[in-house]
């Protein structure tokens, strides 16, 4: 694929991604390929390339020669997502305690404060975006590129889930500050406990599983 073609498909990918993350194409809805092609003045080829990338991200499902649609979340899907998110965020925090600097933790705290401000403004899109940035930066501090890549894909789904469920009030964002406090104190057990409180109830991850996670960290 030449650079110009790659650039066009990347632009289309970002366009469709923003439509999905803004809720303009809702969970379970078909991707309006013809409408997007007409709006952007392009052929279907770069759209199909963009859709393949979105499918690789796990945000859409493609039914060959039929249509593509945004994924939906059932209760079991949410629990599965929550289990993985808890596990990866705990690992991210452990690595951040080892590798992170106080300056990085200060930046993380700022992202958490911005996330809470957008929730107070009832801006669900920006709240979800800043929340993802908070957790991705936590992973970045840990200096593990493999974990960061996993988290980047996971948090695209997380942003979609928050917007689709209109779930801004189901997660206590004040705990972002407590997470940073624990990281700054280099207190691994406290960091794990706060992350479990922060995420466990949102995803309806059972108390037994949450307790097992905490035991594993001791």
Automatic annotation (TrEMBL):
Keyword Oxidoreductase: no
Residue ranges annotated for the HTH gntR-type domain, each copy included: 6-73
InterPro entries linked: GntR_C, TF_FadR/GntR_C, Tscrpt_reg_HTH_GntR, WH-like_DNA-bd_sf, WH_DNA-bd_sf
SUPFAM superfamilies: GntR ligand-binding domain-like (SSF48008), Winged helix' DNA-binding domain (SSF46785)
Taxonomic superkingdom: Bacteria
A Pfam match: FCD
GO MF: DNA binding; DNA-binding transcription factor activity
Keywords (A to Z) from UniProt: DNA-binding, Transcription, Transcription regulation
Keyword 4Fe-4S: no
Protein name: GntR family transcriptional regulator
């Amino acid at each position: 694929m030449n650079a110009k073609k790659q650039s066009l498909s990347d632009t289309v990918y970002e366009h469709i991604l923003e439509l999905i993350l803004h809720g303009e194409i809702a969970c379970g809805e078909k991707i309006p390929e013809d409408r997007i092609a007409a709006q952007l003045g392009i052929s279907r080829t770069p759209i199909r390339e963009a859709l393949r990338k979105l499918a690789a991200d796990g945000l859409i499902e493609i039914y060959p020669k039929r249509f593509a649609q945004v994924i939906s979340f059932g209760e079991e899907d949410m629990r599965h997502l929550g289990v993985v998110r808890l596990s990866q965020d705990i690992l991210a925090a452990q690595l951040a305690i080892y590798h992170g600097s106080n300056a990085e933790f200060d930046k993380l705290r700022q992202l958490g404060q911005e996330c809470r401000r957008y929730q107070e403004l009832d801006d669900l899109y920006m709240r979800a975006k800043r929340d993802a940035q908070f957790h991705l930066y936590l992973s970045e501090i840990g200096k593990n590129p493999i974990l960061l890549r996993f988290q980047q894909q996971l948090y695209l789904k997380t942003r979609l889930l928050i917007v689709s469920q209109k779930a801004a009030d189901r997660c206590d964002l004040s705990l972002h500050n407590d997470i940073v406090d624990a990281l700054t104190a280099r207190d691994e057990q406290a960091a794990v406990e706060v992350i479990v409180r922060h995420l466990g109830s949102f995803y309806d991850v059972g108390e037994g599983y949450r307790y097992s996670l905490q035991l594993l960290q001791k």
